[in-house]
Automatic annotation (TrEMBL):
Annotated binding of S-adenosyl-L-methionine, by residue: 1-2, 28, 47
Domain Ribosomal RNA adenine methylase transferase N-terminal, first and last residues per copy: 2-132
Name listed for the protein in its UniProt record: Ribosomal RNA adenine methylase transferase N-terminal domain-containing protein
Keyword annotations from UniProtKB, A to Z: Methyltransferase, RNA-binding, S-adenosyl-L-methionine, Transferase
SUPFAM superfamilies, per the entry: S-adenosyl-L-methionine-dependent methyltransferases
Length: 210
């Protein structure tokens, strides 16, 4: 992690000018429990470092119930994947996890020239409104495993791509989903049904690969 020393110095100056209003924490964001930093209500507003934007987002989605909302800037392609609808090329694991936990709004696009120095890519800001129901850690983990398996081989039929979870046919039947469908055709609600079925059977069929 490389810190922008000028930004850190400017923030430190601001914090000094407004005692008690701003605290500067120099740390690897991947190792920080954002929900433990402050009492509720909490929001996250960030121009993310794009190289770690996805793991940061997934961590915050896991704890989404702790936040009132988030406004986050991503590389445009990532923002499009987050907000994508089923049956599109951009729809994938990140779309399902994000839209399952939050209402996601594609708020604005920014050209490279909006920054100095200009990056090579376009950027976009997504607004996240956490949904009322908190799935809890076990169901979130089941959804992560399910979407990783389903989209790991997105062109395959689900009865094939979900084999890695073990008991794919029984899982699909429990969720009422045809095994001949492909991951990208499933709605977030259908993924929710399958994640619950996966969790209900104990998360793992005997002998299945972890
Ligand atoms: C505001 S810039 C983002 C710029 C642009 N979005 C990009 O990714 O090129 C992100 C800031 O996060 C810092 N940063 C990078 N990785 C970090 C990490 N793991 N934890 C905390 N800060 C990090 C960088 O030093 C930089 O100052």
């Amino acid at each position: 992690m490389e810190l922008d020393r000028r930004a850190v110095a400017a923030l430190a100056e601001l914090a000094e000018a407004h005692p008690g209003r701003l605290t500067v924490l120099e740390a690897d964001a991947l190792g920080v429990d954002a929900a433990a930093l402050l009492p509720a209500p909490r929001k996250i507003v960030a121009n993310l470092p794009y190289n770690v934007a996805t793991p940061l987002l997934v961590g915050w989605l896991r704890a989404a119930a702790a936040f009132e909302g988030m406004a986050l800037m991503f590389q445009q392609e990532v923002a499009e994947r987050i907000c994508a609808a089923p049956d599109t090329d951009a729809y994938g694991r990140l779309s399902v996890l994000a839209q399952w936990r939050c209402r996601c709004d594609f708020l604005l696009r920014l050209p490279p020239g909006a920054f100095s120095p200009p990056p090579k890519v376009w950027s976009a800001v997504v607004g996240f409104g956490p949904r009322a129901e908190d799935p809890g850690p076990a169901l979130f983990a089941a959804m992560e495993r399910l979407t990783a398996a389903a989209f790991g081989q997105r062109r395959k039929m689900l009865r094939g791509s979900l084999k890695a979870l073990g008991g794919a046919e029984a899982l699909l039947e429990a969720a009422g989903i045809e095994g001949t469908r492909r991951a990208e055709t499933l709605t977030v609600a259908e993924f929710d049904r399958m994640a619950r079925a996966l969790l209900a059977r104990g998360g793992q069929a005997p002998g299945a690969a972890r």
